[in-house]
Amino acid sequence: MKDTTTNNQNRRSFLKTSGQLIIGFNLFPFLQFCTNPENQTDLSTYPGIAIRPNAGKDIMDSWIRLDAKGFVTVLTGKQELGQGIRTALLQIAAEELEVPFDICHIINGDTAQTANEGYTAGSNSVEGSGSAIRQAAAEAKYYLIQEAAKLWQVNIDQVEAKNGAILGPENRKISYWELLNGEFIEGKITGEAPIKNPKNHVIVGKSIPRADISKMIKGEPHFIHDLRLEGMLHARVVHPPSYNAKLEALDESKISQLPGVVKLIVDGSFVAIVAKREYQAIKAREKIIEIAKWESTNIEPAMGDLFSNMKNKASNPKEVEASPTINQTIKQAKNQLKSTYRKPYTMHGSTGPGCAVAQWDNQKLTVWSPTQGVYPLQNTLADLFSIEKESIRCIGMPGSGCYGHNSADDVSAEAAMIARHLPNQPVRLQWMRDNEHRWEPYGSAMQLTLEAGLDQNGNITSWKTEIWSDTHSTRPNGNAGHYVSARHLAKPFEFKKGGFSGGSYRNASPLYEITDKALLLYDYEGPLRTSALRGLGAYGNIFALESFIDELASIAKMDPFDFRIQNLKNNRAIEVLKTLKSKTEWENLSERTKSKSGIAFAQYKNSAAYFAVMVTLENEGEKLKIKKMISVIEAGQCINPDGLINQTEGGMIQSASWTILEAVQYNEKEIISKDWNSYPIFRAKDIPDIEVHIINRPEEKPLGAGEAAQGPVAAAIVNALSNHLGKRIYELPLREYFEN
Amino acid sequence: MKKITLKVNGKKTKHELDPEEPLLYVLREEFKLSGAKYGCGLHQCGACMVLVDDQAEPTCMNSCEYFEGKDIETIEHLSQNNKLHAVQKAFFEAQAAQCGYCLNGMLISAVALLRNIPQPNRLQIKDALQQVICRCGTHVRFIRAVENAIAQKE
To answer: CDD domains recorded for this chain (chain B) (predicted)?
Structure first.
């Protein structure tokens, strides 16, 4: 492993060493950024750059490197999760640095190289990493302009940056790389460099295709699953049959003699098997499952008692938004309404089960991981093994889409736990389907009671929200007890829920203009493991809030668009609703179509992207299906329109699947949603027609958009269904109405 | 262990294998191919699909022995001389991917469909893609890509 502690004085020499290439993505052929996947040969000369540690977020070199002659290397602490973040960040860098897009390459999270940007979560990557990269690129360009002006002894307003070169008076021209002459840009980001006027953008705002897709369509190695290291062994884990089960007996002699088995690891109730070939590990795992004896305790409460247990066992409420007058104001209003909504446990359900590769050499650990945060992973592994975090290198690699805290961190920790028994050998661990379905942390079940008062003009005067929910974040941010298998060791790590985060009430406070509001949160420790699932509490909260808005609109005898618009003061929100109304030709829709349609709106987190959607249902035999979804999204400045549409379409389909089909099932012994038959999700035949319209505001800052659709789509489906049935539906999923 | 002869991407080779080992692991380990992927091990998700005598077939359960004498074609073999298959081209042009883990299954299913029904309608396209799980919700683009591939062939 490359020494990552090199100090500043030595850094300059790195540029002159050419041999040491980056381990990680670059084990695979370098990403080629060109729009034609059939013609990549011209650009295949990008040599990669030598590893240089990150010297802090306030240094230009932490984000932009011109080490490779003729190429730009952008660094980000954020991970590519299938959301297209690499392309969007490269567009921002190329635009601001004034270089052609095709010469830009990117390195994602790697503790030996990139900045610590925490987790890739909460739709923060473009807002966070994007603005850092924009600033660093602007600053680097400014530095180059100043250097050229010095060289030519002219004023800086006599020179300009264009196409990777500085142009000066008398047709003088010098490329960035000639100007740097082998040095790199060490300076601090001062914030003084001018940022390009969005009016002059030529790369940002363009639908540049994702280069990684050109590799994936050819089946080239791309995922962590495809990483093959010399001498790599294959591991599988056997998780207990249920959360609290303890291993009673396992006849190890029956396992160690199986073909190809290299090592059986039994540490308390943590059981793993390592073999030479992948299939040998799978066969040995099956044998372990067959013969291992476990002592189990029942899962409580029973599924049917979940929501009553939630009400009985939850903590006393925390006043997130306090109002001493709320009950009074509601009572005094002209009209009142109170409704309770419920959503079940839902799953991330990644298509590819978690996978990671780990290797120990001389007490130093390297982990190749699909994690959402290489630095939090490094911290937590340091806790798990009681070693200095500097001895651990975490290299982020693309996994199967995760949509939040799925198995990625668990599998990375387990790979490292297993590899520790086999020093100097890379060990690849992949979860089986049942590991993934039964052991990932789910999105919490939630119960929401909403109560509001309306005046005689259809204005909402008062609003009270009560939320019952388990936590929406148990990410292992430094605490090894957050890894499931660390809790199963002979010397177990204790799992401490790090307090109940704001995730439970995300988006629960209405964006609507309401004078008197109260928000109460009842924390609940439920039977199943939970953590962050795309949107966190916003999915359940917006499902309830926007269903309730439709109920209020009908009490006020108002059109659902008009009622929403009348109760909003936020102009951008109003614009999104008005655009949806015109795109759907709402005014011209027949009553028949309207009676099968529903709308909903939210601004994600009340601070990120604005999103409104109309869902229309149709009959299919006895049952219903979604015919069409039309949406409008406004995410401030749009970096890559097609990327935004792609992610929004995906969010809409995923949310429709959660809403209509999905609920994690369990009995007293175990979780019974263990594969795609016992936990079905949307497939091709469930897919409706989808339209996504963008409102672009180049003059505004970009807003996180990846989770904007989750809540509104649920509410719009429920509103459409309730309109169609002529009765209000309060509980998800909606399977009985849709499934044939 | 047994000598197993497999015809993969036009080439016949012999391998000393556990005849029960599913083809998927043989493709990934013996042939160092990455396209076909493990998704469920249960023939439920299609991540491991390959073309077997021009039909899309999962490989995660059926033994390698079962595939002897059959013509196996993987995603890696679809493009020839740096020229993409019409379906690959259409997938790229439609930017039909998010995380991309399901792409192998989607592409293989689409290619098999077009080899067997050159002019499928939308329902037939959906039927063909039905067997593949995509959690990112990229289906509208997959369907559009297959339709575009058909249009380009005309």
So the answer is: fer2
Q: How far is it between the farthest Cα atoms of chain A?
A: 84
Number of Cβ atoms within 10 Å of the Cβ of A487: 18
CATH of domain A8-215: 3.30.365.10
Give Cα A710 to chain centroid, integer Å: 12
Residues of chain B under the 50 pLDDT cut? none
Chain A residues with CB under 8 Å of B145 CB are none
Q: Name the residue facing B135 among A207, A351, A690 (closest C-beta).
A: A351
Whether A1 shows a pLDDT value over 60: the answer reads no
Q: What is the pLDDT of residues A618-628, one digit of tens each?
A: 999 999 999 99
- From first CA to last CA, the distance across chain A in angstroms is 56
Asked if B42 and A676 come within 8 Å (Cβ–Cβ), the reply is: yes
Cα–Cα dist A135/B19, whole Å: 58
User: Is residue A519 within 8 Å of residue A320, measured between CB atoms?
Assistant: yes
How far apart CA A205 and CA A644 sit, in angstroms, is: 10
- Measured in angstroms, the CA of A163 and the nearest CA of chain B are apart by 27
| The pLDDT of residue B82 | 85
User: Which among A207, A228, A400 has the least Cβ separation from residue B99?
Assistant: A400
Q: CB-CB: which of A348, A433, A682 is closest to B42?
A: A433
**pLDDT at residue A7, as a whole number:** 34
A538 three-state secondary structure: helix
**A-B interface: how many C-beta pairs under 8 angstroms?**
192
E-assigned strand segments in A445-563: 446-454, 460-469, 516-523
B26: amino acid identity, one letter: V
Model confidence pLDDT, tens digit, residues A376-405:
999 999 999 999 999 999 999 999 999 999
Mean pLDDT over A533-551 rounds to: 98
Contact (CB<8Å) A218/B75? yes
The pLDDT of residue A93 is 97
Which of A217, A432, A682 comes nearest B103 by C-beta?
A217
pLDDT above 90 for A28: no
Q: Does domain A224-296+352-439 have CATH number 3.40.640.10?
A: no
Q: How far apart are the C-alpha atoms of A707 and A605, rounded to whole Å?
A: 9
- Fold classification of B2-76 is Ubiquitin-like (UB roll) (3.10.20)
* Per-residue CA distances from A433 to A23, B31, B39 (Å): 29, 24, 7
pLDDT band for position A45 (cuts 50, 70, 90):
confident
CATH for A314-345+442-738, options being 3.30.365.10, 3.40.50.300, 3.40.50.10860, 3.40.50.150? 3.30.365.10
Write the pLDDT tens digit of every residue in A161-193: 999 999 999 999 999 999 999 888 888 999 999
pLDDT at A31 over 90: no
The whole-angstrom distance between A37's CA and the closest CA on chain B is: 8
Write the pLDDT tens digit of every residue in A100-132.
999 999 999 999 999 999 998 877 888 889 999
User: Do the Cβ atoms of A217 and B137 come within 8 Å?
Assistant: no
B-chain residues within 8 Å CB-CB of A642? 95
